[in-house]
Write a structure and sequence with these properties.
Two copies of one chain form a homodimer. Chain A is an alpha+beta fold. Chain A has two domains: 2-129, Creatine Amidinohydrolase, Chain A, domain 1; 134-356, Alpha-Beta Complex (Creatine Amidinohydrolase), CATH 3.90.230.10. Helices cover 32% and strands 22% of the residues of chain A. In chain A, the strands form five sheets. In chain A, strands 4-3-2-1-5-6 form a six-stranded mixed sheet, with helices on both faces. Chain A has a five-stranded antiparallel sheet with strand order 13-12-14-17-18.
C-alpha cells in the first residue's frame, strides 16, 4: 500500500517542478512508510522521495521497519546524505514541505548545500491523504465505534458532584484500558464552562451541578486513525432556552449533514451552516464548520469560508456547528462523516437527543 | 514576573537589529505571558513584542488572562494587526522565531506585508528561558518530588505477568488522579525491549518475565514545569552481565553529576561522559548525555559534543547516560538536576541502586 502512495508522490514531482521531495511531516511519513517517531512535532525522521526511490533517514535510537533507511551518523548528518543521493540521482531541486519545515531548518539546508535549491511546496502528500481509501475509512469507522462505546459507558457514570476532571479521567481510563490512544485530550465542560470553546477541564475543579449542561468532545484512535465527536448531556432538566437552542442547533447540524456532498465547495457548506445558524436566531460561532479527520485529528480540508475548493469522494470530516451564549452556556454537536460517491455516511452513531442523565 | 521577562526581550531587540519580535513558540508565549493555547504545535496565538508594548493575538475561542490582547477577525487577520502596529510604532524589521515559524507562515507574512522585512532569529526568548529563576526551580523541584513519589508507588505494584502497557497505564493513572499532567508518555520497557531507546509500550503486549530488567522513564509536570527521570528495576535476579553493567553505568552517571558545573562547556561534559562509558567497557549510546528541562521536557541547552557553549547557573538538565546491548538488554539512569552557583542540586531523589522487586 505505501508503495502505491510513494509512487503517486513520485508521479507528482514533475508538476511541482522538483527532482525530489523531502518529507518532514510526521503524519506524511507515517502515511507513506508506516514508520513513526516518538514525538510528532520533532523532526526525528525525513523521507527523501526521488523519481526512483524513497529513502528514510532517522537516528540510531530507532529501528525502522521500512526500507531503505539510513541512519544519521556523527560524521554524516541529513545534509551529507542528501548531498550524496542528489549527486547520484542528478537532482538539483528538492521540494521541502512548507507547512512542516521551520525557517531555521530551511536555512540550514540552503546554507550547507548551496549547490541544491530547496523549493517550498504545500500539500504534495496531503493532497493524497485527503482522499481516504477503503482501508483508511474502515479504521476511522472502528475509531468512531470505539468513541460511541466510550460515550455510552461514560454517560452512565456521570453524577452531580463529580468534577469535570474526573469525567475526563474516566474517559481516558476507558480508552487506555482497551489499549486505545486518544486523538486529543478529552474536553468535558459543565455549566458556564460549556460556553468556553477550547475548554481544558484539568485547569478547573468545577463540579457538575444539578440541571447543568455538559459538553463532551472526545476522539479515540484505531490503528493510528482518529475519530472526533461532541455530544451534550444534562443531569436533571435543561432550561427552556437550553432546550430550545439545542433543538435548533441539532436541526442546523442535521441540515448541514444533508447539504454536504461530493462536488459542493467547502465555502458553500460553511456559508450554508452559518446561514442556518442565523435563520434559527442562534449566535455565530468562532470556529470552522468542520475539519478533515484522518491520521491527524485536525487536517485539511477545512470546511471554512476561506476555502473554495470542492469536497471530494473519500474526504472524511468532523462537522461541528456550535452555539455559545457567553457567560451562560454553550453547545456543540459534532459527527465524523465520510463523503462517498453519492451519499454521506455518518460514522459516529451515538444518539443526538439532549441526553438527560 | 512576565513583565520583567518581556522587558528583557525588549532590551535585546537592538542587539538583534530588529524593531520588534513576533513570538510564535507555544512555550515562549506561556513563559512571557502565562497564556496558553490548546495544542502546543499549532500556532493559535502570537505575541508581538515592540520596544514599548507586547500585544497578544489569538482567536475568539480563547479568553486570554493577559493584556493587551487582540482577536483576529474575519476582516483583520494577524497580518492586518501587524501592519497597523508596525505603522504606529514605526517598526520596519520584525524578528520571527526561526525554530518555530514554518516556511509557509514566513512566506505568507513576507508576501502580505511587503513593506516590512522579517528576519529569522534563533533563541531570543530561549536564551532567557535557559536560566531558571528560583520560582521556576521550585516548580521543577515539586515536579521531581511528584515523580519520585510516583516511582515509589508504582514500583511496589510491578509483578511478573503484568504487561508493560499496564505499568505505563498505572503511572498515568497515578498522575491524573492527582491532577498532574505528564511531561511525556511513560516509557516502560522490559527484557529485550530495554535496549530500544525510544520504546513505546503501547505498541506491544509484552509481559514482564521473571528475572528480566525493567526500564521506566517518566516525567510529571507541576504548574507547567517538567521533570524527567529514568530508573532500572528487576523482578527477581539480574544476570552477572546486567549487574556488572549497572554498577558501571551508575558510576558513570554519578561521575557526570560530579563533573557538570557552572562554567564548564556542554561539549566537555558530553566528552567526559562518553569517555567514562568507554573506560568502563560499556557501549557508546546514540543520544545526548543530557538536555535542558523546563516548560518543555526537551529544551536547550543540550549536553552534546555539538555545543561548545558554557553551562550556566540556573540551567536545569536531565542527565541520562545509557548502555544498550542490542538484542539483549539496555539500561539508562537519568536525573533532573539544577546548576547552582557553586554546586549541583540533584532534584530527583528516588534511590539509584538496581531495585529488585
Amino acid at each position: 500500500m505505501s508503495r502505491d502512495r510513494i509512487a503517486k508522490v513520485q508521479k507528482s514531482l514533475v508538476a511541482h517542478k522538483i527532482g525530489a521531495l523531502l518529507v518532514s511531516d510526521f503524519y506524511n511519513i507515517l502515511y507513506l512508510t508506516g514508520f513513526k517517531t516518538s514525538v510528532p512535532e520533532e523532526h526525528e525522521a525525513f523521507l527523501l522521495v526521488t523519481k526512483k526511490e524513497a529513502v528514510l533517514f532517522t537516528d540510531r535510537r530507532y529501528k525502522p521497519n521500512y526500507k531503505p533507511f539510513l541512519f544519521y551518523s556523527r560524521e554524516k548528518r541529513l545534509t551529507g546524505h542528501l548531498e550524496e543521493i542528489s549527486k547520484k540521482s542528478k537532482v538539483k531541486k528538492i521540494g521541502i514541505e512548507g507547512d512542516s519545515l521551520t525557517v531555521s531548518e530551511y536555512q540550514t539546508l540552503s546554507k550547507k548545500l548551496p549547490k541544491l535549491s530547496f523549493i517550498a511546496t504545500v500539500g504534495v502528500v496531503m493532497e493524497q491523504r485527503q482522499i481516504k481509501d477503503s482501508g483508511e475509512i474502515e479504521k476511522i469507522r472502528q475509531a468512531c465505534k470505539l468513541t460511541d462505546q466510550c460515550l455510552s459507558a461514560i454517560s452512565k457514570t456521570i453524577k452531580v458532584g463529580q468534577t469535570e476532571k474526573e469525567v475526563a479521567f474516566n474517559i481516558e481510563q476507558w480508552a487506555k484500558k482497551r489499549g486505545c490512544d486518544l486523538a486529543f485530550s478529552p474536553q468535558v465542560a459543565s455549566g458556564r464552562n460549556t460556553a468556553v470553546i477550547h475548554y481544558e477541564p484539568k485547569d478547573s475543579n468545577r463540579r457538575i451541578q444539578k440541571n447543568s449542561l455538559i459538553l463532551i468532545d472526545i476522539g479515540l484512535k484505531y490503528k493510528d486513525y482518529c475519530s472526533d465527536v461532541s455530544r451534550m448531556f444534562v443531569v436533571g432538566t435543561p432550561t427552556k432556552k437550553q432546550q430550545d437552542s439545542y433543538v435548533k442547533l441539532l436541526q442546523v447540524e442535521e441540515n448541514v449533514l444533508k447539504k454536504i456532498a461530493n462536488g459542493k465547495s467547502l465555502k458553500e457548506v460553511d456559508d450554508f451552516c452559518r446561514n442556518e445558524i442565523k435563520k434559527n436566531g442562534l449566535p455565530d460561532f468562532f470556529h470552522a464548520t468542520g475539519h478533515g479527520v484522518g491520521l491527524d485529528v485536525h487536517e485539511p480540508p477545512v470546511v471554512s469560508f476561506r476555502d473554495e475548493r470542492m469536497i471530494r469522494e473519500g474526504n472524511v470530516f468532523a462537522i461541528e456547528p456550535g452555539a455559545y451564549f457567553d457567560g451562560e452556556f454553550g453547545m456543540r454537536i459534532e459527527d465524523t462523516i465520510v463523503i462517498l460517491k453519492n451519499k454521506v455516511e455518518v460514522l459516529t452513531k451515538f444518539p443526538k437527543k439532549l441526553l438527560q442523565l
